[in-house]
Amino acid sequence: MDRIERKICEIIDRNQEKIKEFGRDIWTHAELGYRETRTAERFAGWLSELGIETEKGLAVTGVKGYLSGKGAKGLTVALMGEFDALPIAAHVDANPETGASHCCGHNAQIAGVVGAALALADPEVRAAMDGNIVFFGVPAEEFVEVDYKNGLREQGVIRYGGGKCELLRIGALDDIDITVGHHSMSGSDGEISLGNSTSNGFVNKMIVYQGRAAHAAGAPHRGIDAMNAAMLAQHAVDMQRESFRDCDTVRIHSFISKGAEAVNVIADDVHIEYSVRAKNIDAIRDASRKVDRCLRAGAIATGCGLTNITLPGYLPTVPAPDTRAVDEAMDAAAGSYKVDHIGKVHGTGSTDYGDVSSIMPLLQFHTAGFEGAMHHSGLKVTDEYLAYVVTAKIFALTAYNLLKNGGDYARALLESYHPVLTKEQYVEYMESMLSEETLPMAPLPIVEG
């Protein structure tokens, strides 16, 4: 390590208890997407104490801090952390009112970003970099509470469900050249690893089948069973699975958010949510069309009415062509922790970092410090130093590596990166995946006797 790298690590270590406390505080005050008001205020307050100029209220709750001021010359690197939690009320530390809990470890991202800000705001460290750094707290990565987000869309508050998608749309990322992101992982998956893998993209579907209620024993012929329509559609989706190519890693999953009210009443209002994922845009479109056909089939066969709202989700993640900046940062910050520079080949989950990576270079890394399954009520923090402090070091060192020596690493990364879409093409794609289809209910004749 050079002298500036050592100073970055020393500053973060000297403030480690403060960083850990911040991570704990966010953990115990989890908030759901587009409602992260307290988290945003704490994040913005930390940056303001460091004298960092901030913008608030971006995509509802996003906070953007500029190390060298807005509009500063040179390349701009964003250190990004996600504000939102998951609705997992069974977690021991879940918010008792909302059921929100940080079972995905986003609190560690935010702690890492503010810890990095502490070090990078040092005058000597700042002077050693050629360019600007943005500390970006972003909302709503988890694509949950879809009814709520769709309501915000209908009110005109947002257009897209994912926070980074919305930030891209409104131009809040237009002045950023490279993004650095992080994700937590369970200790069973390693300690520190490169996150330069591909991942699936997806679209989300909100489905309502409208039937006719009737007594299920006394007069079932008078009813139109919306649950039957939903089950028939699901069976039809199951029959599609052999039509998907293995190389496209298609994943289709669903749950019934509203079903029947009683066993002896024909269901007349059934709500289902589908997520349709695949490795590339063409496969997402293909799988989405096939699911739509299955949903129509359920309605047509039973005579139910259908409303099918398709919301654009996230794009597949594009790996960075040059990861030297983050690789060297992981090694410098690791200490006795083990580092994996290979990481996963492909992840079948999805993240709105995929959208960012389609427009600009994205460097990602993972740190552990957690035990239990991610997205599960049993997840807990077991090593605060690794989860929060090492994360802060890697964030800060990656930014420094990109912008030191006149920004050599940053320029090399930009030269080797080829965007999948321009911003205009991105918005065009997202709008093309936003649709609403309705079919009217076609009730059967009521036969007496």
Automatic annotation (TrEMBL):
Domain Peptidase M20 dimerisation: 207-297
InterPro entries: Amidohydrolase (IPR017439), Bact_exopeptidase_dim_dom (IPR036264), Peptidase_M20 (IPR002933), Peptidase_M20/M20A_hydrolases (IPR052030), Peptidase_M20_dimer (IPR011650)
Positions in coiled-coil regions: none
A matching Pfam family: Peptidase_M20
Entry's Gene Ontology molecular function annotations: dipeptidase activity; para-aminobenzoyl-glutamate hydrolase activity
GO CC annotations, alphabetized: cytoplasm
Superkingdom of origin organism: Bacteria
An example Gene Ontology biological process: folic acid catabolic process
Name recorded for this polypeptide: Amidohydrolase
Organism: Candidatus Ventrousia excrementavium
